[in-house]
Structure formats: C-alpha cells, structure tokens
Amino acid sequence: MLAAVAAASAWALAWSAHWSWSLAVRHALPADLSVLTHLRGPLGAVRAVAALVGAVLTVWLVARLASRGWAVVACLVSAFVALCALSGPPWYGPRATFEVMRADLVEAAAQRVDQVDADSYLGTRLPAHLAALSESGTTLTRDGTVFFPQWFGIPDDAGGYFYTASGEPPTGWDMFGEPCTEPLPLEPHWWACGMNPLPAASW
Predict the structure, then answer these.
(1) Is residue 9 part of a domain?
(2) What CA–CA distance (Å, rounded) separates 112 from 131?
(3) Do residue 164 and residue 129 come from a single domain?
(4) Domain that holds residue 22
(5) How far apart are CA 31 and CA 39, in angstroms?
(6) b/e per residue, 154-173, with b = 16+ CB within 10 A?
(7) Where do the TM regions start and end (predicted)?
(8) Domain boundary among 55, 86, 117
(9) 3-class SS of residue 186
(10) Do the beta carbons of residue 117 and residue 123 sit within 8 Å?
(11) For residue 202, is it within any domain?
C-alpha cells in the first residue's frame, strides 16, 4: 500500500506542470500551489526524478502482483507516460499565460524598472524565486522598460513580455536581434511581443 501511494504521489508531481496549468488558466489553482506552474529552473529536474521514481515503482508493483509479461508492458507504458509528463503543458496563448504569471511578473517589474542592467548580454539575473519568469532567468531593462524573454532563437532573436513604465508600446525594442513589431496589449503597461498569439500543443 505504501509503495502504491508513493507511486501515485510521484506521478502527480511528474505531471504537475500539466494539471497546475490546466487549473491556473481556469483560476482554480490555490495560490499556495502556484509555484507548480514554473516550467524552468530546478522544478524541471524534480519532475524528471519524480517521473523516474513513479515508473520504477509502477513496474515493481506490477511485477509483484502480475506476471513477467505484464511487467514488461508496465515498463513500456510507464516510459511513455513519463515522456508525456515531461513534455510540458500546452501553450495557452500569451494572454492566459500572462494571467497565470501576472503576480510574479508585477513583483519582478517593480524591482527592476528603476535599476540599471548589469554588464551582461542577457541582462540582470532575477532573484531565485522569480527566475522561472524568464527563459534565461534574467531581464533586460532600459529607459523604464523591462523585458522578460520567454524564448530564444538560434543564434539570435527572442520574444516575451514587456512592462513599460510610460504605458507606451515597446515597438522597435531590440529583442536580441529581432525588433518588436505589433506588440499585443495585455493590460495597462503590459505587452507581449514575438509570441505565438494562438494556443498550441506545446510551448
């Protein structure tokens, strides 16, 4: 019984990115669990370990309760389920995603808007508890505008969220080689630029 509970708990944690986002975009996720929506940083490694533990325990339980053939099936199914869990949740679009991240984005913008960037290509590193807001764990700040990159291209280009103290759109802002064009207004002072405007199967 203890092993079954442990396996279920491990799978719940492994799939936490999926179910937490599904609840969050419906405003049904308790605030205390909002950290589970973080897709970057150490939580990704924790989910990977949880998926491995869940798979091992599932195979062990099936091997004890059924034949060897069923254990092989359990191994294959567990591997598939683990890969699906770690693939990340769907992309809900920039508006819904902003709403989920809003409280942390507002906190980070308030800290950064009046500061000067460190001498770094990627900008200034965010505090550890806010690092998941940016693909690089950093923000770029210039003239009262804070940029939170959500993706990077290879070798350059990016897209993400902007806070502008003036409330003006960040049109023309250099997003690591890609100028911001047609920024999407989210709410006063907040914009999305260079991001897929429609929901998609993955980030």
Answers:
(1) yes
(2) 13
(3) yes
(4) 2-86
(5) 16
(6) eeeebbbbbbbeeeebbeeb
(7) 46-63, 70-92
(8) 86
(9) strand
(10) yes
(11) no
In a domain, 198, yes or no: no
- One DSSP character per residue, 124-175 reads EEPPGGGGGGSTTSEEEEETTEEEEEEEE-SSS-EEEEEEETT----TT-EE
- Whether residues 168 and 184 share a domain: the answer is yes
Residues 69 and 33 in one domain: yes
The answer as to whether 199 is a domain residue is no
Do the beta carbons of residue 20 and residue 37 sit within 8 Å? yes
Reading the chain (203 residues) residue by residue, the pLDDT tens digits are 787 899 899 999 999 999 999 999 999 999 899 999 999 888 988 999 999 998 888 888 888 877 667 767 777 777 777 778 778 889 999 999 999 999 999 999 999 888 777 667 889 999 999 999 999 999 999 989 999 999 998 878 999 999 999 999 999 999 999 999 999 999 999 999 999 998 887 77
Q: Which residue's structure tokens are 């409330």?
A: 167
Count of structural domains within the chain: 2
- From CA 6, how far away is CA 164, in angstroms rounded? 46
Q: Where are the alpha helices (DSSP H) in the chain?
A: 2-14, 16-24, 42-65, 68-86, 94-112
Say whether both 175 and 98 belong to one domain.
yes
Among residues 18, 53, 86, the one where a domain terminates is 86
